[in-house]
Amino acid sequence: MTGGTNRWFDPGLAAGVASGIAGRWPIPGRVEEALSELLGEGLGLASGLTGLREPSGFRACVVDRAGWAREAALTLERLLDLALAKEPAPARPSVARAAASVEAGLLLGYLSRRVVAQVDPLDPEPGRVLFVYPNLRAAEDRWRAPRRELRLLVAVHEATHLLEFASAPWLSEHLAAMAAEALVLLSPRGASEALVRSLASLAREGLSGAVLEATAPLRQLLSRVQGTMGFLEGLAAFVAEEVAGSHPALAGVVRAVGREFLAAPEGVVGRVLGVGAKLAQYRAGVRFCRRVVAEAGWEGVTRALSSPRSLPGWEELVRPGLWLERVMAS
């Protein structure tokens, strides 16, 4: 962790505050190995269905809530550095830097209880999936679903995200750029004054929460973000449902936990870009993928991941025919 080296945000302090809220949780031996095996099985099922490219490598990394908070604090630092590259800011006074870091830590402590698993677009280790063990166990206890089958369903969902990033090597940078752009657009007084506060607001409410005060550039960005994130999350949920449809034990888990479980918010970047902010966005993504696959096959999904321009906007996500006409008919 690079805590203390950043001139205006301290990820170490943020992680420390978050860890105090998140608490510690013992992680049994061999659980990481077992989840890596399930992730490999999930990759095989998802890639066999979709034909999307598999990553060159992958691994499951099991953490407790405090461990997730430490990872998320580093992601915040990377995201804020990207925003500062767009709009440079002077060094913050030490008191302001500490206050911003504490505010971020409080938010991360809250979010640490909500994430079950995630693929972080800004993770410097491609192919890594974080599983937050206490949240996974809480889901198992809540739904009383068979442990292996529930974990495999989660693994298929996360494996689909790995396939998305492997099939579209530009996607991580694209998502990070949109998140950084949102931060800058929401900081009218300049990054030095409002950037961290904007980030906290976005992570609480998602970008869609800013729509009432949106400028024209922000509204345009909002359409791109909602379309992109709705598609990516909808695809992961759709693939998990389709895989479950041919595996009776997994289908029983889907019935037990409900489809909304697959739309749980994922990570800092996902929260900033609005993942899970509205179930309508997730449901629209699932419907979009179902329509595209029905009319264009999985080649349609491959085309959507071929370039940033091929991704659907919000209007196309809710009206897939518009996207099919624009992209598949060209």
Descriptive key words:
330 residues; 15 helices
**Structural class of the secondary structure composition?**
mainly alpha
- The low-confidence parts are none
Strand order of the largest sheet: 1-3-2
Characterize the largest beta sheet: strand count, sense, and whether it forms a barrel: 3 strands, mixed
How would you describe the shape? globular
Helix content: 55-70%
Kindly state the mean pLDDT as a whole number?
84
Strand content: under 5%
End-to-end gap: 47 Å
Number of strands: 3
Number of helices: 15
Compute the CA-based radius of gyration.
19 Å
User: Order of SSEs, N→C?
Assistant: HHEHHEEHHHHHHHHHHH
Structural topology:
Layout: H1 11-22, H2 31-50, E1 59-63, H3 65-86, H4 94-111, E2 117-118, E3 128-132, H5 133-143, H6 147-167, H7 171-185, H8 191-205, H9 216-245, H10 248-257, H11 267-272, H12 279-296, H13 298-304, H14 314-318, H15 320-328
Parallel strand pairs: 1-3
Antiparallel strand pairs: 2-3
Helix pairs in contact: 1-3, 1-4, 2-6, 2-9, 3-4, 3-7, 4-8, 6-9, 6-10, 7-9, 9-10, 9-12, 12-13, 12-15
Report on the architecture of this protein.
The protein is mostly helical. It is 66% helix and 4% strand. It has 15 helices and three strands. A three-stranded mixed beta sheet has the order 1-3-2. Helix 7 (171-185) runs antiparallel to helix 9 (216-245), helix 9 (216-245) crosses helix 12 (279-296) and helix 12 crosses helix 13. The longest helix is centred in the last third of the chain and has 30 residues, at 216-245. It starts with 10 loop residues before the first helix and ends with a helix.
